[in-house]
Amino acid sequence: MADEHHLELLWGGEPPSGRGRPARTTREQVVAAGIARADAGGLHELSMRQVAADLGVGVMSLYTQVESRDGLVVLMIDRAFAEVTDTLGRRDGEPWRDAAARQARTLWDLYGRHPWILDHGHRMPMAPHVLALEDAFYTPFLDIGLPASASANAAIALRSLVTGLARDSRSEQDQVRRTGVGYAEYWSSLNAVFWDRYFDEERYPAMTRLWYAGGFAAEDILAGEGILERAVAAYLDGIAVRVQPGGTGQGTGGA
Amino acid sequence: MADEHHLELLWGGEPPSGRGRPARTTREQVVAAGIARADAGGLHELSMRQVAADLGVGVMSLYTQVESRDGLVVLMIDRAFAEVTDTLGRRDGEPWRDAAARQARTLWDLYGRHPWILDHGHRMPMAPHVLALEDAFYTPFLDIGLPASASANAAIALRSLVTGLARDSRSEQDQVRRTGVGYAEYWSSLNAVFWDRYFDEERYPAMTRLWYAGGFAAEDILAGEGILERAVAAYLDGIAVRVQPGGTGQGTGGA
DNA sequence: GATCCTTTCGGTACAGCGTATGGAAAGTCC
DNA sequence: GGACTTTCCATACGCTGTACCGAAAGGATC
Predict the structure, then answer these.
(1) Percentage of chain A surpassing pLDDT 90?
(2) Which UniProt keywords apply (chains A, B) (predicted)?
């Protein structure tokens, strides 16, 4: 009923069995080739034919390793998340806020290295290393004694905040990278033509105020990473307010 | 250099000129048909041939109205955002936090009605009614005297938070709707099979704690809208902390 | 009314996609 | 040396977006 999650593919670790014609290619190689393609040109330039060509292999041979294109993408995501699995855990003596902020930053950087993850249409797959990251995100909030459902909510929201911000900012950098135009150049020229050809200052008063106050300067918004740190800090402040007044821990309830 | 933004399509209001063979179809009709298709089956079931068939029109005739499939999607997004343009503005006497929270909730509901917006690969288009929403999001933060770049950051982060949360939660509801299985049923069966076939409690200690504490009960996480309100409230608390201590307004600087 | 001009219509065609099918090939095991 | 098992991959099918271009349908002009 629900095997669009590729659970067997992700979790079933069947050994190769030894018999029969040996495969010219391992699953890891296929996944790595897919990641290379996606890193270079985004998810929509990842075609089975291209990956097969990169590996010097027939197209249909890939399907002995990955079951479908969607399955390949899911495996690629798992592989990408594996890059950070070991660095996520909360360290000895690390304050919970530092841990949460560091994890957020780690995820942000991961999206920076593999922006195509953000183009994945569905929810993040239930993959081993994706779960590892989610588990790490829950930890700081559980440790400060937030109730279970509040911890879950807080962690999910933090993750969504990072993901949403990454989508908003990275996608433009992608566009820049594809067209080869420099970021400042691209941004200013686009804004210039847009601003004095179409923009109606009376229709968008807030943006107009921001524009003249310099709030849209490229280095303030997307180019710098400041937006992530600021947003995460604000969100964690909100969580801190919620946990401090009640004491150190207000009855987690649960193992 | 940059006409993948469809600026002409979105902002250029050329009148139909009168002469020549009259069109059998208006742009609004095409966009409406596209929205109907996408509402029913998601963006990946939106094909030009389908839309044309729905309108009883040849496929290529659509291209006199929309320039490309991507242009159609962009117009559909603009049209969807137009649904809420009039309800966004801050009301008389409305506290800034209420305004921001209401706007966030409005966007959330919009995503609920048209989940396919979240499947759009690129950044939100520079469309009239999308800008209207962005403008509204900036307003509360500007009004409390946050500096220009901080206002921009805060509004973008709030928007990204809503978008990220919507993507995380809605996509699963989508899946449920497509397969026709009830939500609770689907979730519990998936979790049951996953939990006791693959899950390793030692590998994911935080999730294990949450699981046994009931933090993953469906009604607490995705099904309820509580997660949005909680996350937005926490984030706005963080912003409030940031503006209160400095006084009522700490020198916006700008028009 | 006939002609020209402008615009839209839409059939055909093409390149690309994911992948089902199934015979050939290449190993291990008895 | 069969028998068996597994992989390889050429071919084919249906689907996609859309370039091309002659045909059609209206207004404008004579």
Answers:
(1) 55
(2) DNA-binding, Transcription, Transcription regulation
**Res B8: pLDDT:** 81
Cα A165 from Cα A64, distance rounded (Å): 37
Confidence class for position B13, pLDDT limits 50, 70, 90: confident
User: How far does the CA of residue B218 sit from the closest CA of chain A (Å)?
Assistant: 10
Q: Do B138 and A207 touch (CB under 8 A)?
A: yes
B71 plus B136 within the same structural domain: no
Contact check, Cβ <8 Å, A234/B154:
yes
Give the integer Cα–Cα distance in Å for A234 and B13. Answer: 41
Query: Domain range spanning residue A108?
Result: 91-243
Q: Which of A96-100, A242-246, B62-66, B74-78 has the lowest mean pLDDT?
A: A242-246
CA distance B172 to A127: 16
Output the pLDDT for position B247. 44
Residue B251 lies in a domain: no
Are both B117 and B185 inside the same structural domain? yes
Q: Among A81, A113, A137, identify where a domain stops.
A: A81
Do residue A215 and residue B254 have CB atoms under 8 angstroms apart? Answer: yes
pLDDT-based confidence at residue B156 (cuts at 50, 70, 90)? very high
Distance, CA of A114 to C1' of C22, in Å: 38
Residue A57 and residue A106 in one domain: no
CATH number at residue A55: 1.10.10.60
Banded pLDDT at A252 (limits 50, 70, 90): very low
Cα(A144)–Cα(B206) distance, rounded to whole angstroms?
13
Cβ-based neighbours of A92, under 8 Å, separated by 6 or more: none
Asked if A133 and B84 touch (Cβ cutoff 8 Å), the reply is no
The last residue of a domain, from among A26, A47, A81: A81
Q: Which candidate from B148, B168, B189 shows the least CB-CB separation from A123?
A: B168
Q: Which residues of A touch B216 (CB under 8 A)?
A: 152
Select the residue from A97, A107, A146, A156 to test the B interface by mutation, using most B Cβ atoms within 10 A.
Answer: A156
Same domain (yes/no): A14, A66: yes
Tokens 């996480």 belong to: B221
Indicate the residue of B157, B230, B237 with minimum beta-carbon distance to A153.
B230
Q: Do residue A124 and residue A204 come from a single domain?
A: yes
The whole-number pLDDT of residue A7 equals: 82
Same domain flag for A75 and A134: no
CATH number of the domain that B169 lies in?
1.10.357.10
Question: Do A118 and A32 lie in a common domain?
Answer: no
Residue B25, nucleotide of least CA–C1' distance: C8
- Which of A126, A131, A254 minimises the CB distance to B209? A254
User: In angstroms, how far is CA B49 from the centroid of its own chain?
Assistant: 26
Average pLDDT, chain A: 85
Q: Are residues B149 and B238 in the same domain?
A: yes
- What is the torsional sign of CA B142, B148, B152, B154? negative
Question: What is the predicted pLDDT for the residue at B2?
Answer: 38
